[in-house]
Specification:
Pfam families: Methyltransf_12. By secondary structure, this protein is α/β, with parallel strands linked by helices. The chain is built from eleven helices and eleven strands.
Length: 334
Amino acid sequence: MKPQFGTRFLTDPREVFQHNAWDNVEWTDEQEAAAKKKVLENSQPLPPEKQEEYDSRANEYWNDFYTIHENRFFKDRHWLFTEFPELAPQCGLHQEPSADASATELLQEDSADQKQCTQLASLSLSDGEFPGSSATYRILEVGCGVGNTVFPILKTNNDPGLFVYCCDFSSTAVELVKTNPEYDPGRCFAFVHDLSDVEADYPVPDGTLDVVVLIFVLSALHPDKMQASISRLARLLKPGGVMLLRDYGRYDMAQLRFKKGRCLSENFYVRGDGTRVYFFTQDELHELFAGAGLEKVQSLVDRRLQVNRGKQLTMYRVWIQCKYRKAPCLPPDT
């Protein structure tokens, strides 16, 4: 059984090259000061006209990315089910207590309420059917790429009532999902969608999703568009439904590697291929989710030291993992 992250600790610095990665690595004050200095050195933003170009051509850059890499760039995320047991709740894969021990308990307490909410949600749907309208457990992944989250969910979660929706900004990525031999239209619906376009319709009514998943996708949005996008997604959740996020944290190695001329605004950068990325703090993410009316179940910083033993290199990674929940519906007064 694969444990949750945070179980291999570096207690003796001389042993740093004994493993490929170490968990929960605390930074020294000197390291943090050096990271802040490095970010400040490369924080001069590009001219507004250049920024506008990256914004207006974002779709083109992501299509080019997936045309070049197709399905070779990403590995299936099998860690998903230890970190986010909500993706396959009937499988009993989650045995270890999480760093926020109350998270699973909070979700379990609401199971009875959620069943009642499911019934209420079904009553509020319009007469017209939609993909997965007969499902009893619905998951949406936003920013699905080539399906490295979706296909492990479909393979692992054998709940006959499961239906998975997945969308991406890139039509190239969605086409790669649909042409994958594992794509099953009876259990999955892939579609092109711009998360930042809050006026664009989703293929499901509001209040019908159990889980929304955002894996390294919110960071690709312009910071000014993040709040409206999260608020729109929150409307899709059933009462008691959860939003799951894993994304880049402040001072991650990828942020420190950006050279001058790549900064768009504070902690927001453009890569060499034209795609963009933001580096979050926990407080910033909490503000976004709370602003959408969701309550915190879990918020963790995963500070990991990755090691290239062949080249004797050390790389500090910082990721943030969150779970936020829509308040369960109250039982009717008796």
